[in-house]
Amino acid sequence: MRVVIEDHVMPVLMSAAIEAYDIVHKATERSKGKNKIETYGLLWGYSVPAKGENGEDKIIITSATIETSAIRHENYVQPDVESIETKKALIQQYWPHLELVGTFHSHPYDSLDDVNRIKGWEASSEEETGEYGDTEYWPDFHKKIVPEQPLLAHLILTVAQLQKTGWALPDLIECSNHSYFRISAGMKKLWLNSYVSVCNTIEDDIEESVDYEAYMYDDKITLDSPALMHRIFANS
C-alpha cells in the first residue's frame, strides 16, 4: 500500500497545522483565545488498485480542505458531519474527478521532549488512552461517510516548538506497518504520519441487505512525498 501526497497539498497541511499551533483562536472578540490546538481537514484525490502480481494499491492525494467548523481543542478535534457531507456532495457535483480519499488532523505539543516521551506522532487509541481515539474514529468515519471507497488515507501532522532554529536532513522512518516523515522547519519540528482504513461490503442474501465492515489496514504502508523531500533539501 502506498500513500502519495502531491506537492501542492503540503502547504495546506503544514500551514493549517502551524496556524492552529501558533495563532490564538477566539470564539468572539472578548473571549479568551487558545493556541496549540488541533486542526482537521479532508483529503481529496483518487485511488489506484494494484495491477499485476507485485503491484500495490495506491491512494493519490491531490488536494486538501480544512474544516473550519470543527470544534478544536488542545487534546482533540471534533469535525462537523454536516459540513463534511456538504463538501463531499459539492465536490462530487462540480469536480467529479476528485474523490474523498481521507482525513488529516494535527497533534500539537509544547516541546520535542513531550513528543518523544509519548510518541506523539502516532495515532491515539482507546486501548492506550481509555478514550475514543484515532484508530476507532477512522473506521467509523469510513463506514458512515465514505462506505463506497474501499481505502482511505489518514494523515497526522505533529507539531512541536524547538528552543532554537533547527536543521536536519528530512528522513522517512519505516515502522512495522506504516511510515512517517520527520522534518525540521525553522523553529518547528514536524512529523507526518500515515495510516489507512479499509471498508468491505457485506451482502446478506437471506435478508437481501448490504452492510459494511470497516477496520484499520494492518499491512505495510509507504508514505511518498518526493517533492517535499526536494523542497526541504533545496531551501535549507
SSE layout:
Layout: E1 2-5, H1 10-22, E2 40-48, E3 58-66, E4 71-72, E5 77-78, H2 81-94, E6 99-109, H3 112-118, H4 126-129, H5 134-145, E7 151-166, E8 171-174, E9 179-204, E10 209-216, E11 222-224, H6 226-234
Parallel strand pairs: 1-3, 1-11, 6-7
Antiparallel strand pairs: 2-3, 2-6, 4-5, 7-9, 8-9, 9-10
Description:
The chain is α/β, with parallel strands linked by helices. It contains six helices and eleven strands. It has one domain (2-234).
Summarize this entry quickly.
The protein has six helices and eleven strands. It has 236 residues and is an alpha/beta fold.
Task: Tag the structure with descriptive keywords.
9-stranded mixed sheet, 6 helices, two-stranded antiparallel sheet, alpha/beta, 236 residues, 40% strand, globular
Quaternary organization: single chain
> What count of helical segments does DSSP give?
6
Low-confidence stretches: none
Q: How does the major sheet shape up? A: 9 strands, mixed
Structural class: alpha/beta
Average pLDDT metric: 88
Shape: globular
- Give the topology string: H per helix, E per strand: EHEEEEHEHHHEEEEEH
